[in-house]
Amino acid sequence: MRFEYRFHLPDGVIKTFEVRLDGETLALQHKPRASYPHWAKLEFGQCPGCPLRPEKHPNCPIAMSLVDVLEFFKDSLSSDELLVEIVTDARTYSKRTSLSNGISGIVGLQMATSGCPLFNKLKPMALTHLPFANLRETMYRYLAMYMLAQHFLAKRKKPTDIGMEKFTEMLEGLRAANRAFVKRLYEVCRKDASLNAIVHLDCFADNTAFSLKTLGLDGVERLFDGYFD
User: Fold this and answer.
1) What is the C-alpha radius of gyration for the chain, rounded to an integer number of angstroms?
2) Cα 59 to Cα 36: distance, rounded to the nearest angstrom
3) Helix, strand counts (H, E) of the chain
């Protein structure tokens, strides 16, 4: 699978980043650098709950996947308006939006497919990667992914969470990792575009958890009335 993110910068330059995923596993495919900056080291602000060990993984998988994007936009402001195009094998998306909103799409895609054991649970969402998604769309994709995971757990005769009691717990764990990664980015980002891209993703996770706690699934349940007769 191929995703080409094109940022039409205010100075007329078009900056392109290509993301390639394995067609079967959705694992991110990228050429490793000969060396990485110090802020990419695993032990540099390692996320809470990260099970990786530096002797086997000297660098953070997410930092390795994002280093090109983060270093390019390190001096950019999140409020900059520009046209962002995403060309995939199946279709093209385009929108004039803030830089941070544009960056958040490619950042989220690479975080989920980077091999990070914390964000690996979000990897299935890369199959239906939806740039510029709103909260309702993101919430639906979160829920659909989580419930399909329960089906596959049941198939393997493992404990399931059909009642979704642990769903918000999973989101809170991802939010903690998001916050830790933002702290890591303070080392490289002199301006806020990349930082706010992570914050943007964190807000989706936060708002999804909040909506479930306060409103439940009523707003989604009514969409399935065709199954209830």
Assistant:
1) 18
2) 8
3) 6, 5
Q: C-alpha angle 68/69/75, rounded to 5°?
A: 110
Q: Do residues 24 and 16 touch, judged by C-beta distance below 8 A?
A: no
Distance CA(5)–CA(95), nearest Å, equals: 12
User: How far apart are the C-alpha atoms of 182 and 197, rounded to whole Å?
Assistant: 10
Tokens of 94: 């385009």
Burial class (CB in 10 A: 0-12, 13-18, 19+), 177: buried
Token couple for 35:
């060396």
Domain limits at 48?
A: 2-227
DSSP, collapsed to helix, strand or coil, labels residue 166 as coil
Q: Does the global pTM surpass 0.70?
A: yes
Structure-block tokens of residue 75: 């001096």
pLDDT digits (tens, 9 = 90+) for 76-128: 777 789 999 999 999 999 999 998 889 889 999 999 999 999 999 999 999 99
| DSSP H or E run through 88 | strand 81-88
Q: Which single residue is written with the structure tokens 């690996």? A: 120
What is the number of structural domains in the chain?
Answer: 1
Q: Which residue has the tokens 């930082």?
A: 195
pLDDT tens, residue by residue, 30-56: 888 989 999 999 999 899 899 999 999
